[in-house]
Amino acid sequence: MTSLRSAPNPGGPRRKATEAPALAVAAVAKRLGVAPATLRTWDRRYGLGPSEHTAGSHRRYTADDVARLVIMRRLTLEGVAPVDAARAALDADEAELALEIEVGDSDDADDADGAERSDDGDGDPEPGAAPSPAAETPSGGVRLLRAVPRASDDEPVRLGAPRPTSVSDVVDAAIAFDQKKCDQLLRIAPGADPGHWWSTLVEPALHRIAERTFLASPGEMPEVVFSNATLAALREYTHASEEALVAGGGPPPNHPSRMRRIVLIFAAPGEQVPLAAHALAAALGAQGAMARIVTGSATAHRSLELVTMVRPAAIAVVTMQPRPVLDVVHTLHEANPDLPIFVGLANDEAAASLPYASTVQRVRSFTGLLHEALAVVR
Hints:
Shape: globular
Strand content: 5-15%
Distance between the termini: 22 Å
Largest sheet: 5 strands, parallel
Strand order of the largest sheet: 6-5-7-8-9
Oligomer: single chain
């Protein structure tokens, strides 16, 4: 499928792999928080190895190589089978790799929910490794931490630091139906990245709750407690961000300068809007973009009327269904062939039902959806 490209980023051109120095295996392993043997295993088993050769036949990892490894590591930490995670990393397009390269300097690759991987690369934690997902800031917000250093690391472990908030903490609060505690654990600190918060804390917790079996009393649902806390965190963060923007002299949300570059986010017909759709809208807003979620009845006819009225810059379809009905995508594309439409689908077979066009793209990950939408509105 032809990849859609937008005008140059006003903040300057993207950094290309050739502009960054190639790295040795030890440097990449330290950056990702894995053992060098794990990288060699991923190279041997899945072809995720260094692609640059230097004098003396030494192989080095380019920025694109590292970006694929970041995708591999994040997906395995989220519970994706290594073979599937490797396939997604190898299939990542230029846009997805560019996003990983952009966030690489902030050690985003190290901010994951879990410890280092074992040498065999099978996704099991290495014995003795300490998990390090998200930590609660003094204000109650969430900030992401690097992996807890080992005794052999250069950085000493800072004693007396607040105990990191883990995915297990959030899951336990939801299972205990402790709404107040769940709300506190999931708060997003001002200036934090909602996209990263979603990928490293909320989504793994959501998957873990979905895998559990509960005996609950009437009116008790861990999923509802968790969903309420997630939506409250996103709502609070977005309102605070909008207020700060207007207080700083920026335009209000309904200003024409913002509305004409809006992204409309749809769920699949008949599907309750997933939490990921709300997280995507907040993550777009954090990057200065405008996004709105289509809720309520969204038949193909009503969706077409809405798009005609709003005239968005792009459409994003977020669905949790393994085989969603995508008639709305066909309807919108036929009426607006030049409108970029990005559909998040993990299932390869489901992607076969998408219309074949350069403006309709299947995206496998939340990060990919975010980046593709940003590339258009920017």
